[in-house]
Amino acid sequence: MTRPFGHAYTVPPTLPPLPIRELRELTRYRKTQIDARVAEIQRLEKVLQDAGVKLTSVASKVLTQSGRAMIEALIAGEQDPARVAALAKGKMRPKIPALTEALAGHFGPHHAVVCQRILGHLDFLDDTIAALTEQIDARTAAFEAVYKSLLPVPGFDRLTIDVIIAETGADMSRFPSAGDLASWAGVCPGGHESAGKRRRVSTTPGNRWIRRALIEAARAAVRTKGSYFGAQYRQIARRRGPNKAAVAVAHSLIELVWHLLSTAEVYQDLGDDYFTNRQDPERRARRLVAQLEELGFKVTLEEAPAAA
């Protein structure tokens, strides 16, 4: 027998209403299609690399308008790298010399067959994702207040909030506390006890759909300039590593969701100087002095005169 220790793992006691269950099925299926699209793009990049076409060494993404036009030209049988590179558009045009060099591979007929099928599959997936999104938008129209409350949160977009609504019903009364919601989402520190022995595990088991959405949102949030979440990530990553820091940020995000939806408060970021302002001034000074001394400097501190 095993059981988590730390925060209790809470399962909401009631089955969500039918509209939420339908929404959940749509958001989960859309995620599988988004994942399939990512996999197909990676497969396309691999085929191009095999053909010696180093498009991604010049362009940040392979499927920009320029990238697609060049790939379609290769599929059509164009062998001159300069002609293919000349299809670049907009900001890619100054990179035409680099593109000409990158496109000088050995793109053969079998590469053309695979790439053509991949592009067709990507078009199908795009249509599928768009159709699912249309259905999801129609079913979440009644939750506009939830989007208004959560969209200002760093890392959150409509796709993330769609998942939060679908998995929780946006009903925070089902969770006694923010900690219960975090545990249910699988972003709490966890552990197991068996035969009287305890061992730590990374997180509690939980809802994998919302957990993944939260981790993705956390990684986006830490890139937001001036945000508390970036400061929190750096604070933890120095000691525990990037993955545990991302989970910690995801934990903070879902607890924030519980508070915002439970209280109808407006989100206010604590700022990226939150942890710095919390530090004891003398302790912070000692730490900075120690860092300078490690670099070979001799430091003498003198208290500045009080401002007039």
| Mean pLDDT value | 87
Tally of individual helices: 13
What would you report as the Rg, rounded to the nearest angstrom? 25 Å
Report helical residue fraction.
Answer: 55-70%
Distance between termini?
68 Å
N-to-C order of helices and strands: EHHHHHHHHEEHHHHH
Strand numbers in spatial order across the main sheet: 1-2-3
Tell me the domain tally: 2
Low-confidence stretches: 1-6, 191-195
Describe this structure in words.
The chain is mainly α. It has two domains: 3-19 and 142-263, no CATH class; 20-139. Helices cover 59% and strands 4% of the residues. The protein has 13 helices and three strands; from the N terminus they run βααααααααββααααα. It has helices at 18-50, 65-75, 81-85, 96-102, 109-139, 144-150, 158-168, 178-185, 208-221, 228-240, 242-263, 274-278, 281-294, and strands spanning 3-4, 190-194, 197-201. Strands 1-2-3 form a three-stranded antiparallel beta sheet, with no helix packed on it. Strand 2 (190-194) and strand 3 (197-201) form a beta hairpin. Helix 1 (18-50) packs across helix 7 (158-168), helix 9 (208-221) crosses helix 11 (242-263) and helix 10 packs antiparallel against helix 11. The radius of gyration is 25 Å and the shape is flat.
